[in-house]
Design brief:
Structural class: alpha/beta
Number of strands: 24
Shape: globular
Strand order of the largest sheet: 16-17-15-2-24
Helix content: 25-40%
Length: 463
């Protein structure tokens, strides 16, 4: 499938900052989007009010909050003695029979909203219409539609297996054994596991078909379920059993988003500089923790001291073979386009069904700047080539936008279309990127004066 058009609102061109010296910075990144939205769903089903501290506040999480409120949950921001600005208290929705009503859920382009919320809506009486941005109607949804029907839930999708569709809930789902094909997205598995404990018979979910991509995200789901008292058995490959029971209310702090740290770490690799990230967890299920193994393959040095991750770039990025990079792939691909040796990215065919067809989009935009990239059945081949300036289209995809920013560090004259799409997961990315770039000038000035204090960027915070 070809990459979708980058049309739509917000097509202003952003001149990507270009550097000739190394960055030198210490940063913070906001809370994990993947964890924030999982905790929001669980809080909406818990046995009492929950508090989520340090959540990501972005378009995707705002869409999730709106969806849960439309279903009957209450979400309020804390301040003062009970929490810091941005912390959330979530009072659960009422499942079961009630006065049926009609409601509409705007999914935007958020995969977690369009996949996680429909099973939840089945536990609430009434009809819930799901729709989203134009490209959301092209994202794979058939497995969720089929799964809900297999559980006896009424779904009206006009035979499309995609958005828009309606869920007709009666407040009760029997559950039990269910077989699905989740080869298009791990979110299909996570969506069902998150609500399985509230099914009458729990859930025994089995996947059949090609391998499920992004298994780290399913491990994340299982981990957060167990943290709130849900019994989950994942000991048999492609089988997950969630026992019926209570979802315990909680008070917790969301880990920093390690995937969102990627572009800033890439800046160290591209410029031969040094970037330190605060609050890096010692143990995590986030796929972004793979930066610690990926970046050394590209010539960088990586060190974790306590909760401070330090990445120092070498003379130039080097290529290699990178498997199953999942949501990190656009950042990895941008680095590979700047590398001195060829690169192969494998195990990422599912990225064709993300916010855009990311494989086609990356090939089109890298080659549009003079690069040498091509698609394979399950990934990309990227060979060294001299790049030049030009427009880097984003297709309304936040990770395409940050990939363009990375390329702009090394290639003068890159203009990123619709940098504002980064608000999906990091609303103030342009400001934080500009602050990072300023550290290169500060480092150069410090070197000239025989001093070397590191500048500080962040913390990255949403308004």
């Amino acid at each position: 499938m070809a990459a979708s058009s980058g049309g739509g609102a917000g097509q202003t061109l952003w001149p990507a900052p270009h550097l000739t010296g190394p960055v030198e910075a210490e940063i913070s990144v906001p809370g994990s989007k993947s964890l924030t939205n999982r905790y929001l769903v669980l809080a909406a089903l818990a046995d009492g009010p929950s508090i989520i501290r340090g959540p990501l506040r972005s378009r995707d999480t705002a869409l999730m909050i709106d969806a849960l409120q439309n279903l009957g949950a209450a979400v309020e921001e804390l301040s003062g003695e009970t929490g810091t600005a941005g912390d959330l208290r979530v009072s659960p929705l009422q499942t079961g029979a009630g006065d049926p009503m009609q409601r509409t859920i705007d999914c935007g382009l958020a995969g977690t909203v369009m996949r996680f919320v429909p099973p939840l809506a089945a536990l609430v009486a009434g009809t819930t219409l799901f729709d989203g941005d134009p490209h959301a109607r092209r994202r794979p949804m058939g497995s969720i539609v089929t799964a809900l029907r297999g559980l006896g839930v009424g779904v009206d999708d006009a035979g499309t297996g995609s958005l828009p569709f309606s869920i007709h809930g009666d407040g009760r789902v029997q559950g039990g054994r269910l077989v699905i094909d989740a080869s298009a997205s791990s979110q299909f598995v996570s969506a069902l596991l998150l609500v399985g404990a509230r099914f009458v018979d729990g859930l025994h979910l089995e996947h059949v078909g090609e391998p499920v991509p992004s298994l780290d995200h399913i491990r994340m789901t299982v981990d957060v379920l167990r943290s709130v008292g849900v019994s989950v058995d994942d000991s048999v490959p492609d089988h997950w059993q969630v026992h019926p029971g209570t979802i315990r209310s909680f008070d917790l702090t969301v880990e920093a988003d390690l995937s969102n740290a990627g572009p800033f770490l890439a800046a160290a690799v591209v410029t031969g500089g040094c970037v330190r990230v605060r609050n890096w967890p010692s143990a995590t299920t986030q796929v972004g923790d793979r930066w610690r193994s990926i970046l050394p393959l590209m010539g960088a040095s990586v060190r974790l001291d306590g909760d401070l991750l330090t990445v120092s770039g070498g003379p130039a990025p080097t290529g290699g073979t990178f498997a199953d990079t999942s949501e990190l792939a656009p950042t990895v691909a941008a680095l590979c386009a700047l590398a001195t040796t060829p690169s192969t990215l494998t195990g990422i065919a599912h990225l064709r069904g993300h916010e855009t067809d990311r494989l086609a989009a990356l090939v089109a935009e890298i080659n549009g700047l003079g690069g040498d990239a091509e698609e394979t059945a399950d990934g990309l081949l990227i060979r060294p080539a001299p790049l030049h300036g030009g427009v880097f289209r984003t297709y309304d995809d936040h990770r395409m936008a940050t990939a363009g920013a990375i390329l702009g560090l090394a290639v003068d004259g890159v203009e990123v279309q619709n940098i504002g799409t980064t608000a999906k997961t990091m609303p103030d990315f342009p400001e934080q990127w500009a602050a990072l770039v300023r550290t290169a000038a500060s480092a150069a000035a410090a070197k000239n004066s025989a001093q070397a204090p590191a500048s500080s960027v962040g913390p990255v915070r949403t308004p």
